[in-house]
């Protein structure tokens, strides 16, 4: 009995109810009885079940009923005529192509009206596609709050029975990625864990999806300084990515693997991973990610003592970012250059570049870590020039940015800088207090 009830419940869906209502309205408008619509092909009772939403007819049956009623089959199935659905699908395809081509402003504009148009169709698949696409496009231009609203709506719609667990997991992955960029790390981890659970339980082939979930989750572990968990996730992501032989998935996995190795102080390995990631994205002609990885390679070469190579790579990263219209990435490259010049003693150049980076990064909540780093470099450059009050203001701005990030290690860096400032002023008691606070923040506490 339980199995029969379950099958009946599965047949009774909101989409089925709406289709049934349309069938009844069209039948009545045509002046036909249920028996007349059924003809010799079906029973009156079967037509009645469809009208009450108790069963959903096959595509072939919908076409036959639509022909019987003299209407468009697409309209009977979804309330939208086939030509209208085709128009919306065409617009979605165009917007998605712009997004893939990294024409970010154009993609965001192309997607703008599509969630509303898709809602009017009543077709859940179109709605989720439009909402997710528009959300991703908004993330690209820095409107993460707007993206969050759209992705949450997509998540709610994807809970319907018409969607598979893999499709639900994909929406959760996008939502988790948005939360990461908004620095809501604990929330992001919950979403990514749920996505991984759905993907694994689905029984469907989705190794690329799993690899991408693991890559994003590794990023969360890095922020929380759980390097072992991050390492385990990127290693598994790499295995899955190579198994599906998908360049974008491989690139994302190597990108995160490089960041993990960097945090562990394994800079040669980190450089090797970054080069592999850059090569994968280069084959895809993805200039945005190529630029980001070129920036990272510049930093790694500097750590390995190759200062001249580092500067050339960072200048290249800056040029790529500007060419691709990515101001925030350009800001990150300039911030990295400022760091190099600070450490090599060119404090005036470091100040100039740090200020330029802050200007380019203004308003980008997804780059708050880099904004904090730029303020920190600016403060240290000012400190070295003896401009103590200006340095204090820069350090306060850095701490404010790092506070939004919620990273103890980043805030510890700002406390260390403020400690150096206090020492320069001769307030050694205050300096010692700030150094202790920084040291405590960097300790790994286990209960």
Q: Give the biggest beta sheet.
A: none
Mean pLDDT: 90
Instruction: Give the SSE order as H and E letters.
Output: HHHHHHHHHHHHHHHHHHHHHHHHH
Q: Count up the helices.
A: 25
Unreliable stretches, pLDDT < 50, 5 or more residues?
A: 1-11
Rg, alpha carbons: 28 Å
Name of the CATH class of the domain at 286-447: Mainly Alpha
The CATH superfamily of the domain at 286-447 appears as Tetratricopeptide repeat domain
Helix and strand composition category: mainly alpha
Supply the CATH architecture of the domain at 286-447. Answer: Alpha Horseshoe
Helicity range: over 70%
Q: What name is given to the CATH topology of the domain at 286-447?
A: Serine Threonine Protein Phosphatase 5, Tetratricopeptide repeat
User: What fraction of the residues are assigned to beta strands by DSSP?
Assistant: under 5%
Shape: elongated
Record field, number of beta strands: 0
N- and C-termini, Cα separation: 50 Å
Précis, in short:
The chain is mainly alpha-helical. It is built from 25 helices and no strands.
List the helices and strands and how they pair.
Elements: H1 2-11, H2 14-29, H3 34-38, H4 44-51, H5 59-69, H6 73-78, H7 82-100, H8 104-111, H9 114-121, H10 124-140, H11 144-158, H12 165-181, H13 185-202, H14 207-223, H15 227-244, H16 247-263, H17 267-283, H18 287-303, H19 307-323, H20 327-343, H21 347-361, H22 368-384, H23 388-405, H24 408-424, H25 428-442
